[in-house]
Structures are given as structure tokens and as C-alpha cells.
């Protein structure tokens, strides 16, 4: 891409395994992150041709800087970093600003001119926020063949960004629910720990982080002593899936002093996330 920030290749996130197992089978195979030459073969253009999704995992260097797993048994680290993927700097600065502008416009159009922060979700999960759906961002046509898989291409519209995410990280035949824009107010905007509605979407909850750095806390639903935190810098893309999506509650601390990662408090500035969820299909519902 034409900026100094190189977009991360999906291949960095791929583990070398001999075949494409099901998501269930993959759990036992996750043992290392490989940077073998085969994965970087020039014939491999970085697009997700079907088998990549199952083998994605967060590379160790990014785990070291973006995960605090100190309250998770070591034996479970590989599973968590397979089921919570972070791609820092997914967006270039230009793409980030384009997304912020488009999301802000959409919120304004949906909610009127006035900036309005609702005090609490009907179920009390989110505080000081505003949100809307962005159904027309879902259907951007695929990029022309000459640039398909070329993660170097600057994306010009939200639809192109979301389409690139879907085609680079996920199986091509998945269906998606309409993207959702969520803005948290500076200061007291936050999200209480929750598991996303099981019947409303499938095994992936993905987000693009805009505006400011957020700290996400994930707490095991049945064993609350097991929790971990992830640092979500602005411009990152992340997703949770499978064991993390179903077994851990996720949230963003509401109290500014609790918005910390490894001892550093991150100021709670205005933050926007663009959330993507795959549609619930019986074949994808892995129970929990
Ligand atoms: O804003 C985020 O990154 C997470 C939002 C969230 O918790 C959700 O949509 O379930």
C-alpha cells in the first residue's frame, strides 16, 4: 500500500499444518507458529482459499505485546491465541480516518444531528454509547482479479475494507449479519462483560477499532478466576471465535482507572468499533 505501514499478511497468522482440519480438530493441533518458506511462497497470494481460517493464530510477537495471559494456565495459552486473533495496524492511517468519517456520518444520519449517548442498553450491558447498523457496507463487490489478495491495496470505502476482511480471513461461503457501529463516549463509555447472543450470530465476533486504544477484558463464564486482557490499538482488526466466543465473557472496563493493561492505564477517549458477525448456521454452531 502507498503508506509506510505495511498491512499484515494473513500468512503471518497461519500455522503450518498438513491438512485443513475442522475447527474442532484444530484445537489439538495448535502447537507452534511457523514461518516456513512454504507459507511465504510467491504462489500464495495471501487470500483465504478455504483452508486458512482453521489454521490462523496470533503470532507470538503480537501475543507478547497485546495479551496479558497472566491469569490463564500456560497450557491454555495456545487455545486462547488461536481463538482470539489481533491484527494491529490492519488499517492504514488513511483508511482509519476514512472509516471514522464514514462511521460518524452514519451515526449522525441514523440518530439525528444531535450527539446522543444512551445511558444504558436495554439489558444494561453498554454504558454511554450510541450505535447503529450499517447494512449497506456489507455488499461491496470483490476487488478486480489483478488486485485480489494484494493486501497492499489501499481501500477507499468501508465496504471495501469489510469485504477485504471477509475474503482474507474467513471462508468465502460464510454469510454475515449487517455490520454494526458502536461509539463509546470518552470517559464513562464501556461494556460490561457479556457473551454475545448465542442465537443471533455464529462463532465469530470481529471488530475494527477506531479512534483510540481500548483494553478488552475476557472472563471465563464458569471459572471467573480465569481472565485475560487484550490491548486493542486504534486501527487494529480483531476477532474472537469458538472457545473464546462461547466460554468467555468480553467487555471494556467502564471505570477509567480500570482501563489498564499490564499496569498502564489507557485514557478512555472516544472510541468507535465496527463489528462484524457471521450468520448463525447449524453447521457452524459448535455448541459449548
Ligand atoms: O467494541 C468492541 O470492540 C466490542 C463490542 C462488543 O462487546 C460487542 O459488540 O459484543
Would you write up a description of this structure?
Keywords: Dioxygenase, Oxidoreductase. Residues 34-53 are annotated as: Disordered. Residues 85-277 form the Alpha-ketoglutarate-dependent dioxygenase AlkB-like domain. This is Alpha-ketoglutarate-dependent dioxygenase alkB 7, mitochondrial. By secondary structure, the protein is α+β, with helices and mostly antiparallel strands. The chain has one domain: Alpha-ketoglutarate-dependent dioxygenase AlkB-like (Jelly Rolls). It contains 7 helices and 14 strands. Bound molecules: 2-oxoglutaric acid.
Please describe the structure with a list of short key phrases separated by commas or semicolons.
globular, binds 2-oxoglutaric acid, alpha+beta, 288 residues, twelve-stranded antiparallel beta sheet, Jelly Rolls, 22% helix, two-stranded antiparallel ribbon
The amount of beta strand, in percent, is 15-25%
Ligand catalogue: 2-oxoglutaric acid
Q: Cα-atom Rg, whole angstroms?
A: 18 Å
Q: Return residue spans where pLDDT drops below 50 for at least 5 consecutive residues.
A: 1-5, 17-46
What gross morphology would you assign? globular
CATH fold title? Jelly Rolls
The share of residues in helices is 10-25%
Order of helices and strands: HHHEHEHEEHEEEEEEHEEEE
Q: What do we call the CATH homologous superfamily?
A: Alpha-ketoglutarate-dependent dioxygenase AlkB-like
Q: How many separate domains?
A: 1
Distance between the termini: 40 Å
Structural class: alpha+beta
- What is the tally of helical segments? 7
GO cellular component, one term: mitochondrial matrix
Pfam families: 2OG-FeII_Oxy_2
Domain Alpha-ketoglutarate-dependent dioxygenase AlkB-like: 85-277
Protein name: Alpha-ketoglutarate-dependent dioxygenase alkB 7, mitochondrial
Amino acid at each position: 500500500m502507498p503508506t509506510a505501514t505495511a498491512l499484515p499478511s494473513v500468512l503471518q497468522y497461519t500455522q503450518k499444518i498438513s491438512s485443513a482440519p475442522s475447527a474442532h480438530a484444530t484445537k489439538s493441533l495448535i502447537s507452534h507458529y511457523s514461518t516456513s518458506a512454504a507459507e511465504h511462497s510467491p504462489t500464495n497470494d495471501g487470500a483465504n482459499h478455504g483452508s486458512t481460517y482453521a489454521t490462523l493464530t496470533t503470532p507470538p510477537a503480537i501475543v507478547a505485546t497485546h495479551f496479558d495471559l497472566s491469569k490463564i494456565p500456560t497450557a491454555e495459552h495456545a487455545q486462547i491465541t488461536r481463538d482470539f486473533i489481533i491484527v494491529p495496524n490492519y488499517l492504514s492511517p488513511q483508511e482509519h480516518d476514512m472509516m471514522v468519517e464514514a462511521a460518524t456520518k452514519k451515526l449522525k444520519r441514523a440518530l439525528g444531528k444531535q450527539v446522543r449517548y444512551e445511558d444504558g442498553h436495554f439489558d444494561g450491558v453498554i454504558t454511554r454509547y450510541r450505535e447503529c447498523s450499517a447494512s449497506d457496507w456489507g455488499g461491496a463487490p470483490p476487488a478486480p482479479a489483478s488486485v485480489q489478495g494484494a493486501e497492499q491495496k489501499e481501500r477507499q470505502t468501508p465496504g471495501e475494507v469489510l469485504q477485504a476482511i471477509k475474503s482474507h480471513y474467513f471462508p468465502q461461503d460464510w454469510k454475515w449479519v449487517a455490520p454494526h457501529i458502536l461509539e463509546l463516549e470518552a470517559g464513562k463509555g464501556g461494556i460490561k462483560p457479556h457473551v454475545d447472543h448465542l442465537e443471533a450470530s455464529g462463532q465469530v465476533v470481529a471488530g475494527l477499532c477506531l479512534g483510540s486504544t481500548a483494553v478488552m477484558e475476557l472472563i471465563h463464564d464458569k471459572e471467573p478466576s480465569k481472565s485475560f486482557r487484550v490491548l486493542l490499538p486504534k486501527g487494529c482488526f480483531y476477532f474472537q471465535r469458538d472457545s473464546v466466543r462461547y466460554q468467555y465473557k468480553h467487555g471494556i472496563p467502564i471505570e477509567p482507572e480500570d482501563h489498564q493493561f499490564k499496569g498502564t492505564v489507557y485514557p478512555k477517549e472516544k472510541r468507535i468499533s465496527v463489528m462484524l458477525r457471521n450468520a448463525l448456521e447449524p453447521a457452524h454452531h459448535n455448541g459449548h
